[in-house]
Structures are given as structure tokens and as C-alpha cells.
Design brief:
single chain; about 120 residues; 6 helices
Length: about 120
């Protein structure tokens, strides 16, 4: 039986291959779908759930996306944490920024979106 981590990795690899074959950036896909580039990246990494009303937009932007992957993306996300990811320089700097400026960032988020995160 395939583990959740292994399954997520194989699905993510297939999704990334579809994106790569399309030749489109996350920004281009976001523009075509009306989504944000971060949400598109999360969808293609199985970190967010594809909503039924968004599926046709994503299919139009990535026509080679097979039905089985669309259905997989509509399942609850497979969130995971790789403790080695913090070693990646960009992730390290983002973590550092949040640690230094977290209170200010939190205040802006609360002001704009409320505290129901």
C-alpha cells in the first residue's frame, strides 16, 4: 500500500509535469484563472483543495490536466512538513522575516481579514 507521503509526491510530480509541459508560469495560470499565483502553486503542490467552481477555469488554463488529477485536486489537501525545507535559503529568509516582523504582519492580517485564521 502506497504511503500518503509517497502518494502526495507522485501526484505532485504529475501536476508539476503538466505545468512544465504547458510552458506557463504560476503568474500566467493565475491570470487566466482569476486566482492568485500562490493559490495556483498550492493547488499544483496539493497544499490547497480545488473547488468545483474553479476546476473549469484551471482546466481551460491547463487543458492537458487529466480528469483523474482534477478529481485528486478536489480531495482535501495533503499537507505535510519537511523539516529540511528550512535549509532552503528563500524559506529560511521568509521564516526569519516572519520571526522579526510577525507582530506587524499579524496586525495587518487581523485588520484586513479579522482574527479568524
Amino acid at each position: 500500500m502506497e504511503s500518503e507521503t509517497s502518494r502526495k509526491s507522485s501526484v505532485t510530480n504529475l501536476l508539476q509535469a503538466v505545468k512544465r509541459e504547458s510552458g506557463k508560469s504560476f503568474n500566467q495560470i493565475a491570470e487566466e484563472t482569476g486566482l492568485t499565483n500562490v493559490y495556483v502553486a498550492q493547488l499544483l503542490r496539493r497544499q490547497a483543495q480545488l473547488k468545483p467552481e474553479t476546476a473549469p477555469k484551471l482546466r481551460a488554463a491547463l487543458p492537458e490536466l487529466p480528469d483523474e488529477l482534477i478529481h485528486e485536486m478536489m480531495r482535501p489537501p495533503m499537507r505535510s512538513y519537511d523539516p529540511n525545507l528550512i535549509q532552503e535559503p528563500t524559506v529560511y529568509r521568509l521564516n526569519e522575516a516572519v520571526m522579526h516582523f510577525g507582530e506587524s504582519i499579524k496586525e495587518i492580517i487581523n485588520e484586513e481579514f479579522g482574527d479568524g485564521m
